[in-house]
Sequence to fold (72 residues):
Amino acid sequence: MHPVLVYTASRIGLFVVTLGVLRLLGLQNPVILIIVAFLISGFASYVLLSKQRDALSTRISDKIDRPKPQGD
Fold:
């Protein structure tokens, strides 16, 4: 599967799970709920998604470093 899709889906999934857990824990204010979920899921993704982030970085780096065909 494409590394960009895997990483993006993982980040979204982690955010949704964090949002749900915080909601179950009783956080009611929607603005605070979203901000806290964003911060927690961001930190968690930094720790948990390092393999996916490395694969994404490698994919992007390979695309950039690939020589472009010369068309005259």
Remarks:
- Helices lie at 3-24, 30-48, 50-65.
- The mean pLDDT is 89.
- The CA atoms of residues 6 and 52 lie 7 Å apart.
- DSSP finds three helices and no strands in the chain.
